[in-house]
UniProtKB/TrEMBL annotation:
Binding-site positions, phosphoenolpyruvate: K27, G75, R103, Q154, R326, R370, K394
Compartment(s) where it occurs, according to its Swiss-Prot or TrEMBL record: Cytoplasm
This protein's encoding gene: aroA
Pathway: Metabolic intermediate biosynthesis; chorismate biosynthesis; chorismate from D-erythrose 4-phosphate and phosphoenolpyruvate: step 6/7
Upper lineage: Bacteria, Pseudomonadati, Bacteroidota, Cytophagia, Cytophagales
Protein name in UniProt: 3-phosphoshikimate 1-carboxyvinyltransferase
Domain Enolpyruvate transferase: 14-64, 66-403
Length: 414
């Protein structure tokens, strides 16, 4: 199986899962390690870099000689490269897919301009594509830079990684609600690993001037990718699945999936360098704030609908500006099976449980890897189809092969 622009029909004859999966490495960790390595100017030993397209793209762009760089649909690449190009004083253009040109970047550009970078918008103000025209290194910059924390943490991570290079370092004051906080902490943890320490207290982050030191680092497997396996275990008749390369003390906020899934009927056992998932009892209701782990929201919405759990989900504000408007996409696709994500006000959504599965649903994926992977586990409940299955390449290119190895039947049709 593998055809671009196809429909993938998926079923699982026994509905029993047993075996081990080697997950892809985290693209978030990989892309930070690669930017820090490039800023350090010295070769670090990075092991288990992700095969995700987002990591392939940043690897390519960091050594690209052409004037125009294409970040494709990778948010981290667009945001991290923007800070990198600005601070290294390069004269380049960065662009992306049509969707990327709708994902805001003004908060980051404003901050970099205050730091002396000359950046022009080539299209709509506040959005890519961007043109970099160098940096005024002698410019005095504010002792404290105010940065909104409620749109994307990637702006903050991007600024933090370049912060040690400034003569006085950087102090960021985060304003508004801080979303995706564990990703900021991951950035600081990796910076520290490579010899540059920052301090995060309340809403203030201070990074003194420092020099990155080369170091070796083994990228952890991707907990966001693990979440789909948790869903599959929750929906299977019986299951024992080992996920390799995951750590109990992870830098990834999406490791919260282990606790969340206790509500949905999945038990996690931590081994030396893997976790084993087995089935346990589920709760009938639960509520969770996804502000720290927005990438898990689709996984949870779909599995709860399928398991008849009326979960209350909050902290989903950032979902509308990701690879697609994920709220609208979830509502549209859940309705195909008699489910829904109901807006009950104040940013809270309730999953409407599915009572009778509509037969043979065909799910659209909106150029969003997480739509494909969040709905795929439903193949354990009924035969389903996923449109444009190649979207998984953004973070988990071997996803469909891994499903096949776990007994799923996949048939591609054009
Ligand atoms: O820094 C990162 O690696 C990421 C941060 C999050 O984005 P936001 O900060 O925009 O929520 C997350 O959704 C994305 O997949 C990866
Ligand atoms: C939102 C995501 O990625 P990014 O913002 O880096 O494109 C994601 O992987 O779910």
């Amino acid at each position: 199986m593998s055809a671009i622009n196809s429909t993938l029909y998926i079923s699982h004859p026994s509905q029993v899962l047993s075996g081990a999966v080697t997950l892809p490495a985290s693209k978030s960790e990989s892309n930070r390690a690669l930017i820090i390595e490039a800023l350090s100017g010295a070769g670090s030993q990075l092991d288990n870099l992700s095969e995700a397209n987002d990591t392939r793209v940043i690897t390519r762009l960091l050594s690209e000689t052409a004037n125009e760089l294409n970040a494709e649909d990778a948010g981290t690449v667009m945001r991290f490269m923007t800070a990198y190009l600005a601070v290294t004083g390069q004269q380049k253009i960065i662009t992306g897919t049509p969707r990327m040109l709708q994902r805001p970047i003004g908060v980051l550009v404003d901050a970099l301009r205050e730091l002396g970078a000359q950046i022009d918008y080539l299209g709509q103000e506040g959005y890519p594509p961007l043109a970099f025209r160098g940096i005024d290194r002698n410019r005095e910059y504010p002792a404290t830079l105010k940065v909104r924390g409620d749109i994307s943490s990637q702006y903050i991570s991007a600024l933090l990684m370049v912060a040690p290079l400034f003569p006085n370092g950087l102090t960021l004051e985060l304003t508004g609600k801080i979303g995706s906080r564990p990703y900021i902490q991951m950035t600081l943890a990796l910076m520290k690993h490579f010899g540059a320490e920052g301090h995060f207290e309340g809403n203030i982050i201070h990074v003194p001037p420092q020099t990155y030191q080369p170091a070796s680092y083994i990228i952890e497997s991707d907990w966001s990718g693990a979440s789909y396996w948790y869903s599959m275990v929750a929906l299977a008749k019986d299951a024992t699945v080992e996920l390799k390369g995951l750590r109990r003390n992870s830098f990834q906020g999406d490791s919260a999936i282990a606790n969340i899934m206790l509500n949905i009927g999945v038990q996690t056992t931590y081994n030396a360098n893997s976790v084993t998932l087995t089935k346990t009892n589920k709760n009938e209701v639960f509520a969770y704030d996804f502000s720290d782990c927005p990438d898990l929201a689709q996984t949870i919405a779909v599995v709860c609908a399928a398991k008849g759990i009326a979960a209350e989900m909050s902290g989903l504000e950032s979902l509308r500006i990701k690879e697609t408007d994920r709220i609208a996409a979830l509502q549209q696709e859940l309705r195909k099976m008699g489910g829904d994500l109901e807006d009950i006000g104040n940013g809270i959504f309730r999953v409407k449980p599915i009572t009778n599965f509509a037969a043979g649903p065909v799910f659209d994926t909106y150029e969003d890897h997480r739509m494909a992977m969040a709905f795929a586990p439903l193949a354990l409940v009924s035969k389903i189809a996923i449109q444009e299955p190649h979207v998984v390449r953004k973070s988990y290119p071997r996803f469909w092969q891994d499903l096949e190895s776990m007994g799923f039947t996949l048939e591609a049709a054009n």
